[in-house]
Amino acid sequence: MCVFDAYGTLFDLSGISRSVRAELGERADTLMRVWRRRQLEISWLPLRPGAGADFWRVTDEALDFAMNSIGLDDPRLRLRLMEGWLTPSPYPEVVETLARLRAMGCSTAILSNGSARMIGGAVAAAGMADSLDAVLSAEAVGRFKPDPLVYNLAATHFGLAPESVCFVSANAWDVSGAAAFGFQVVWINRDNTPAEKTPQGTRATAADLAGLPAILGG
């Protein structure tokens, strides 16, 4: 059983910044960096009383912060940026790797903080629906990763003990949270982060998903 984080692991968010580079130039990368960081910071805060785990709202609030930080006020551009989260492109090796894993008899799933609408849109746009056994969203339990309730979604959905699940993420905080829950965790180190900064609990590391079948014995 192989469970994947979505953003930065399966889906490449750099396409969102590229889509507005003609208008923003180098500021597009700055905007995306601040936006993504603020998005995660908000998701790590305690949820407001009565509020659910709505990652679309979190993403929307984070975009306001990021645009204000670079003095940008453009409603049409803002709409395009938000819509980019519905159709991010998968990394080049993703589709082939999922096919190889399934040929090995390995079930595959996504477990993401993204709302069902966001993740469903991304999977559909990439034509990946037939390559996944489940697409699980944190909104189902009203929490965000790294809350253990979110990781437990995958374990209970497939009726597996945590140690029977290989969790794959490119986000260090997600790796640590999943390992603390009890998953066997593979860190996708796309940024070539030095080895001494390996996230806590990492059982294996790969530069991208292409190396995953070999790690799992395929």
Structure commentary:
It is a single chain. With 218 residues, this protein is of the alpha/beta class. The protein has 2 domains: 2-11 and 88-215, Rossmann fold (3-Layer(aba) Sandwich), CATH 3.40.50.1000; 13-86, DNA polymerase, domain 1 (Orthogonal Bundle). It is 44% helix and 14% strand. The protein contains 10 helices and 8 strands. The strands form 2 sheets. Strands 5-4-1-6-7-8 form a 6-stranded parallel beta sheet, with helices on both faces. Strands 2-3 form a two-stranded antiparallel ribbon. α9 (172-181) links the parallel β6 and β7 (184-188). α3 (27-44) packs across α4 (55-69). It is globular, with a radius of gyration of 17 Å. It starts with a strand and ends with a helix. The model has no long low-confidence stretch (mean pLDDT 95). Catalyzes the hydrolytic dehalogenation of small (S)-2-haloalkanoic acids to yield the corresponding (R)-2-hydroxyalkanoic acids. Belongs to the HAD-like hydrolase superfamily. S-2-haloalkanoic acid dehalogenase family. This is (S)-2-haloacid dehalogenase.
